[in-house]
Structures are given as C-alpha cells and as structure tokens.
Design a protein that fits this description.
By secondary structure, this protein is of the alpha+beta class. It has 17 helices and 27 strands.
C-alpha cells in the first residue's frame, strides 16, 4: 500500500479506537443483553480472581458497573449439583479481553473489540492491495467491515468480533504463502521459515473460532487447499499442527479452570436473574434449583448432542429459510452485509478462472476460492438445517448473529475491484439499510424499543418477515378465532378481539390462516378522529375510506377485501406444514391518542429495591380500530337453528351477582357453528322486567357473552355453563337466553325461539346470607 493509503487507514483507525473510550457503558440499553453477563464477568473474574468460579465478588463487580436493573440470563453451569457454580460460556473471548477489562471494565472490552475490528480492516486492505491500488483496497476493506451489521457487534460484550477476527487472520495468514508464489519460498531459509510460521498461525487462529463455534471448521478447506494445490505439504502439516496445538491448549486450559474441555459437555446449565450483589443466584443446598433472589429463567441445554444428531430436513421450510437468510427483513445477508453481495459479484466477474486457464496460478486460486464459497454455504446450511427456528442467533441479534462469525471470508473471494462505481453504489446501499444501525450501535430509544427497531423504517418493510423463527423481538401475535395475526408491538395494540392500529405510517398485519381462505375478508373499521382517510391494501384489493366525510357517514364502515389468494406460505408446526399468509396493510392519516393500561408480570426480584410497576398507564395513537368479522362466505351462513335440550338456572339471585346457568343445546341449522374471527356464535342474554303475559320493559339487551366449544356441527349437542350478570336493582325479571351470531344477528331476530326464565333479584343486605354464591359447576354459581 502507498503511504497515503496507510495514512488514511491510520487516521480512521485512531478515530475508531478513540470512540470506545468516550462512550460510557451502560449506554442503551442500560444493562447487559443476550449472553453478555457471562462474558463480562468471566473477563473480570480472570483478572481479579484467576478463575471461572462464581462468587459474590463477581456479582459486586457486576452491579458496580451495571447498577440500574437486574441482570437477566447469566448462564451458569455445574457438574456437582450446584455445589460448585461456574460460568457456563466458552472462556476464550473473555480470556483475551481480560487485560482490557482489568484496565477499564466494560469500556475496556469495547476497546478490545474495536482493536479487533481495526486489525481486520488492515488485513483486508493488505490482502486486496495485491490486485488494487492501496487507496481502493483501503476504502473497500473499511466499508466491508464498518458498513455492515458486524460493526454493531463491536459494542456487544460478545465473541462475535473475536470469531470474525480469528477467521480473517486464518485466511490472511494461510493464503499469504500461496498467493505470494514460489518466489518468496525460494528466497532462502528465512522466506520458507516465514511461510511455515504463517501457516501454523493460520491454523491456530481458526481453532480459536472453532472452539466457540465448531461448524466454522469448514473454512479450513480453503487455506489447506490453497497450500495443497501448490504441493506445499510441509506447510499443510504445519497448518494442521498449529490448529491442533492451539485447540488442545484451549481445551486444556478450560479443563484446568472448570474440569471440562467445553461448557457444552458433561455439565448442567441454566440462565438466572441476578438481583443482588450479596446473594448468589443459585441455591447451593438445592440441586438444580435457583434461589429466591434469582430463579432460573429457563433451563439451558448442557450438551452438544444436537450437533451430532441426524437432522429432520424439511425441504419446504429449508427453502423458505434460505429466502429469509438472503433477503429477510431482520436477517437478510444482502441487507445487513451489502459488501457480501459486492464480493460475490466481483468474484464471479474477476476472481475465478476456468480450470483450463493457461495461467496455472489463477486456475489453482479459482479452486480454493470456490471451496471457500462452498464452506460459507456449508456453515449457513448447518444453522438452517440443525436449528431451523433459531438459526439467526436466538432472541438477541442484529442481522444474523450466528453467520456474522464467518462474514470476513467474503472479502477473500475478491481480487480486482472493477468497475470502481460499484464501491460508491455499495456504500449507498449500506447507508440505506445500515445507517440507523451504525449510528445507534446501542439501539434506538423508541416506543417498544428492541435491537430490531430499525426495521420500522423504509425500505425494510418491503422485505419478507421471518415467520419461521421462534422469536423476533418487538412483535405481538394475536389469535382471532381460527386466524393468527402478527404485527409490530409499537404499531398494533390488541384490545379484546379488536386491533388498535397506529396512525401516520403503513402498518402491516400478517394474517395466518389454517387453510387458504375461499373468498374475501370482512372487516369493521372505526376511527375516533372526526375525519380520517384510511387505506386498506390486501393482495389485489385496495380500498380507501373517508370516514366522517359526505361519502361515509359516521365513525365506522364495513369493508370487504378480496386478496385474490395468499401473499405467500410459511411453514409452521412439527412436522412443518405450509400455512397461507395474507398481508393486510393499513394506513390511517389521522388519529387520536387513547389511554390504555399496561399489565406487567410479577417482579423477578421482589424486595430487591429495583423499581417495578404492576400496571402502567400509557397512550397509544389510534389511527384505526379494526375488527376482523369473518372470511369467505361465513357471514352468509344460515346458522340460525337451536333446540334447547335442558336449561338449569336459579330463580333467585343477588342484585349485581354473576352466576352461571347450565345450558344444553343442539345446533339444528344446516351450517356448523365454527371458529372464525369476530363473527362467531356465542351465547348471550337479555333482561326484561317481568310483566303478566309477556315481556315488560327492556332492562339490558347486550348481556355478557359466553363462548361455545366450537366447532359445533349440525345436529351436535353441547353443554355450556353460561355466564350471566344479574341486574343491579331488586325485582322480578324475565331472563331471555338467546344465541348471537356476532356482527350479524341475534337468533331471536331470525325467528328462533329463545329460552325464557323468571328470576327474582333480591338485595344483598336482606338475603345475602341465604343466597351464597355456588361453585362454577352448579346452576347459579358465581
């Protein structure tokens, strides 16, 4: 590289290295995330205690630096029934980061990560300078590592950047002797010795990543093949020896510190909540049981047995996951690592040669580069096949947290960077997709914050949502009859069978049906705004409502949308079955803020001093309220037919009392009472004041609804305990039991005779001791 290129790289490197020294941890979020607690505490424990045993001293250091919240998901392990508690994650990253943690705690570990990033940029620039001007090589290498989701992992106290650097060092050192040609090796003993040292260090570097993620071993094929094709068998042997020695040393140190070569074999593991620096999160006296101050959040697998099992490959789900792997909204390789696409394109244009090429060196290079690309495919398929619902990196991830470990290998596919306009084009794409990630590495402070908040911005919503994944933070899944609706938490709020949809943005609802819908979707749309323009798009259907205008009187309207078929299929269940997905996009121009109450689960750390709210009132900007009435011809079904077999209801109840009637009824219609959306058959009732010879005045028409055990086929009889609430005023009443086809009609309005009973309502003060509530299974029970 030229002096100018080196000066540019040095300037950027110093800028990057200064950044961690000025960014305090905690930042956003103000606590540790994912598996960070174990890695941070291991580094601290190595520095201060020289071991990997968990004690209160470790917890004190944890709360000294992260005092704001309880720490979740500290992974621990034991092999003696929790008499000895050890950290349950691989230690290598923490070991190398320990000196930096000793100097500056968590900020020191960020500095270590940034040093690794800078090292990768320099290695990448030096490698590319073999075929390109130094400035071009430096710009490409800087963009490759900074303008990617990999940059965000610099700010994680996690081994991803460590593994990336190990992969980059393996390929840079291992491919160097092969690319330099025979001339250097013939340049004397010094040159040959240098080539052998590089080969040994290459194998040792890769073994560090393999210790953390064994599947990364697939990348060994490229350097071994590059050396083997040039018949450098001594270098191949040295590479293998370096890898074996390094891996043996890593497992030996682990055995000395923990008694086990790896925390994934021969141990019991669990993730716990740390609530106090004074109490260990494991109760040593009770095997495998967490203590009161830190109950286990979840059991954690203690073995690598899943790696060695024969996977159950489902081609449909695998194909869908491959699509998500490349262009998924949260995980897509080309979205979160746009330089990988450029690297592939440049490789296909410049980096490969046909085996019959007269230049044997180029022909050999094409072979190992193809093998490197194949190795990347093997790593990707390993995750997609063996953990098909969790291949992206678990609950905590930006882009693909598992695949980022091998991302540097794409750079070594590149030779000539031509045409040059591809560089600014790729930087532009990186700005579009990654700008919010690079400039908010700790995460954005937004409503319902998650590490995936960036997908709320364009253009991410144009790409498919990964519906096969077990967990994508920031989404809510709402059952509506037999349908399931998935949407973003910040844009949709479920409220008792309705959906509040935020205004001012296109809100996407993914509707999953058990089978393809034959016909349209029927919706009820409401708005609190005096005037509102609401657009609904679903497949081929596109409707715009002008609520409050001259064309649509009133604050609500019914809409029928025929999408013309599913937008796509996803694979759910075990074994996976194709499930149709319908995408409904709702855009409301105006809205009104509505108050709602957020309910929180019980505190994980009772009595610890951390703030906890059982309920919290919040505002939601409601642009539209949606009720999914039914699909297909469900609203047109003639379900109005009932035979009252047996009804047992109390004749005296307390005023305002909730009681139950035992109802046995038969569906005498020709259509099943089946689960749908809002338009389902429920049991309801009306209250009338008793009058001689018939009904008196109406007291209550819309009584409490009771669900039926749907489906109820024609001719089928079911028994239900119907919930009823008595009027508040004492007196004599007529109770009318009446099924209702929600959003369509009461059965009595379609000529079906309801069930009537005389009920006396008495004041609690006069006869409360006589009319005690019964059990739910009895007539009249509360």
């Amino acid at each position: 590289m030229t002096r100018r290129a080196r000066l540019g790289l040095l300037s950027v490197s110093l800028f990057l290295l200064a950044l961690p020294l000025t960014v305090g941890k905690p930042g956003l979020p103000p606590t540790l995330k994912s598996d960070e607690p174990a890695y941070f505490l291991m580094a601290e424990s190595i520095v201060h205690d020289g071991d990997l045993v968990v004690d209160t001293g470790d917890l004190e250091r944890l709360f000294d630096e992260f005092p704001y919240r309880p720490v979740h998901n500290l992974i621990l392990m034991t092999d003696d029934g929790w008499e000895t508690v050890l950290f349950g994650k691989p230690y290598l990253y923490s070991l190398f980061a320990a000196p930096f943690a000793g100097l500056a705690g968590a900020d020191g570990m960020l500095l270590f990560n940034m040093l690794l990033l800078v090292a990768m940029i320099w290695m990448g620039a030096a490698y590319l300078a073999r075929w390109n001007p130094g400035g071009t090589a430096a710009v490409f290498a800087g963009g490759f590592f900074i303008a990617s989701a990999g940059f965000s992992y610099v700010f994680w106290l996690h081994p991803e950047v460590f593994n990336m650097t190990a992969v980059a060092a393996c390929l840079y050192l291992g491919l160097g002797p092969a690319l330099d040609g025979a001339r250097r090796e013939e340049g004397g003993t010094g040159g040959r010795r240098r080539a052998l040292v590089m080969a040994g260090l290459s194998g040792a570097a890769l073994s560090l990543a393999v210790y953390n993620k064994p599947m990364i071993a697939a990348l060994a094929l490229a350097p071994l093949l590059a050396l083997g094709l040039r018949r450098r068998w001594v270098a191949v042997a040295v590479w293998i020896a370096g890898a074996a020695l390094s891996l043996g040393l890593a497992t030996g140190v682990a055995t000395a510190l923990t008694g086990h070569a790896t925390p994934y074999l021969g141990v019991e593991r669990q993730g716990v909540v740390v609530c106090s620096p004074d109490v260990l999160p494991i109760d040593r006296t009770t095997a495998a049981t967490a203590g009161e101050a830190g109950r286990a959040e979840r059991p954690t697998g203690g073995a690598w047995s899943w790696i060695f099992r024969v996977p159950d490959v489902h081609l449909g789900r695998l194909g869908e996951n491959l699509l998500y792997f490349l262009i998924g909204r949260h995980t897509g390789l080309f979205l979160y690592f746009p330089f990988s696409l450029l690297a592939l394109a440049l490789f296909l244009v410049h980096g490969w040669r046909r085996p019959r090429s007269p230049d044997r060196s180029q022909a050999r290079d094409s072979v190992w580069r193809w093998s490197l690309l194949g190795s990347l495919a093997v790593v990707a398929l390993f995750f997609l096949i063996f953990i098909p619902a969790n291949w992206q990196g678990g609950g905590g991830f930006v882009g693909n947290r598992y695949f980022v470990n091998v991302y540097p290998a794409f750079l070594f596919l590149v030779t000539r960077i031509r045409p040059l306009w591809t560089l600014p084009a790729t930087f532009t794409a990186a700005g579009v997709f990654l700008g919010t990630i690079v400039f908010t590495p700790f995460g954005a402070d937004v409503p319902e914050p998650t590490l995936q908040a960036h997908v709320r911005n364009p253009p991410f919503r144009e790409f498919p949502l990964e519906l096969t994944l077990r967990e994508v933070p920031g989404y809510v899944s709402v059952p509506l009859g037999s349908l399931q609706v998935a949407a973003r938490k910040d844009a949709v709020l479920p409220r008792a069978g309705r959906l509040w949809v935020a205004n001012g943005q296109p809100v996407e609802l993914q509707i999953l049906a058990p089978r393809p819908v034959d016909g349209p979707f029927h919706l009820l749309v409401k708005s609190d705004a005096p005037r509102n323009r609401i657009r609904l798009q679903m497949g081929d259907a596109d409707e715009t409502l002008e609520l409050g205008s001259a064309t649509v009187q009133g604050p609500e309207a019914r809409v029928t949308l025929d999408p013309g078929g599913p937008s796509r299929f996803t694979h759910r269940g075990e074994p996976p079955e194709p499930v149709p997905v319908y995408t409904l996009t709702v855009t409301a121009e105006h809205g009104r803020s509505r108050l709602w109450t957020r309910n929180f689960p019980p505190p994980r750390c009772p009595g610890s001093g951390f703030a906890h709210y059982e309920t919290l009132e919040d505002n939601f900007p409601v642009g539209a309220e949606l009720v999914l009435l039914a699909t297909g011809d469900a609203l047109d079904r003639d379900v109005f037919g009932v035979d009252w077999k047996r009804v047992t209801v109390r004749d005296r109840v307390l005023a305002g009392q909730t009681f139950f009637a035992r109802v046995e009824l038969t569906n005498t219609s020709d259509a099943p009472w089946s689960p749908g959306a809002a338009a389902e058959v429920h049991l309801g009732y009306h209250w009338y004041a008793a009058a001689p010879g018939g009904d008196g005045g109406l007291v209550e028409y819309d009584g409490v609804r009771t669900d039926l055990p749907l489906p109820v086929a024609p001719g089928e009889t079911v028994e239900v305990h119907q919930e009823i609430r008595a009027p508040e005023a004492p007196g004599r009443y007529q109770l009318v039991l009446d099924p209702v086809f929600e959003q369509v009609s009461w059965f009595s309005r379609r000529g079906v005779e309801p069930y009537r009973a005389e009920v006396t309502v008495v004041a609690p003060a006069t006869e409360g001791s006589v009319l005690q509530p019964n059990e739910p299974g009895e007539p009249g029970a509360e």
